[in-house]
Write a structure and sequence with these properties.
Shape: globular
Order of helices and strands: HHEEHEHEHEHEEHHEEHE
Largest sheet: 7 strands, mixed
Radius of gyration: 17 Å
Structural class: alpha/beta
CATH topology: Rossmann fold
Oligomer: single chain
Number of domains: 1
Strand content: 5-15%
CATH class: Alpha Beta
Strand order of the largest sheet: 7-6-5-3-4-8-9
CATH architecture: 3-Layer(aba) Sandwich
């Protein structure tokens, strides 16, 4: 890391600050495409701001950790950037993880909230989150994507369309500037070669969207882009399967800037 910083290849901005600059520069360009949604950088920036403000209003605080069990969706991308803008630390897990894995990961990470894909086919992840919450003293907030309005939990869909005040916006800017760029941005899980899931925090909050001396701000360099792509899924047991990459909340998403993000169903 020291060598990259010394050469200027590794910047010093936090991830939300870097994204906000990119969103301002490419505001009218397409940032995200899914089968049913198309968002510009301006729209993605505004929606993720609203999510960040809503999460903070719900009682979550910068530096706290949030378990993620999500699938491909535009809302998942919005939620991802909302978490980062709120200064929260996503803990990436798999939607196929069950009570044993989630309890262990939640306990070791100290997560205080759990964001789940409530409409995950074939399994009730919201029910799992409620069960695990009873086992983890630190857990206090259920967040959902794809849940019906009358179901438990705070729905990301309800947050992303809210208008935020000037005071809330100023607070988000302050968080982005105050984040420790040498601290963890995300807890990324790796099955490794052992039976135990391991936590691997990315080196810093400033991995993607760096301005390198030899080119303009265009997104992660080649080595980092390789990490953004979903890895192949080898035929291994569930606890050894690779986790969703930290900067792409759903598999098969490319977050290269300024190119659009494309998510396959």
């Amino acid at each position: 890391m020291t060598r990259y910083v010394a050469t200027g290849a590794w910047g010093t901005r936090s991830l939300p600050a870097a994204f906000r600059q990119a969103a301002a520069t490419y505001a009218g360009r397409t940032a995200l495409i899914t089968p049913d949604t198309r968002l510009t950088y301006r729209e993605l920036d505004a929606r993720s701001d609203a999510v960040a403000a809503g999460l903070l209003s719900s009682g979550l605080r910068p530096g706290e950790r949030v378990l993620l069990q999500l699938t491909n969706s535009a809302t998942a991308v919005v939620a991802w950037y909302g978490l980062l803008k709120a200064g929260l630390i996503p803990v990436c897990t798999l939607a196929i993880h069950r009570r044993l894995e989630i309890e262990q990961i939640g306990r070791k990470s100290g997560a205080v909230a759990h964001l789940v894909q409530a409409d995950f086919p074939g399994f009730d992840l919201a029910g799992l989150a409620q069960q695990v919450a009873g086992l983890l003293p630190a857990m206090r907030q259920l967040l959902t994507i794809g849940a019906a309005p009358d179901k438990p939990g705070l729905r990301i869909e309800d947050l992303q369309d809210q208008e935020i005040s000037d005071t809330e916006h100023a607070g988000l800017l302050k968080i982005a500037e105050s984040l420790d760029v040498h601290g963890p941005a995300v807890l990324q899980l790796s099955g490794g070669t052992t039976r135990n899931t391991e936590d691997h925090p990315p080196a810093a909050r400033r991995v993607p969207l760096q301005r390198r001396p030899d080119r303009q701000l265009v997104g992660p360099h080649r080595a980092q882009r390789a990490r953004l792509r979903a890895p192949a899924r080898p035929q291994r047991s569930a606890h050894q399967r690779p986790c969703t990459p930290p900067t792409a909340p759903a598999p098969h998403c490319s977050s290269r800037l300024p190119q659009p993000t494309s998510c396959s169903p």
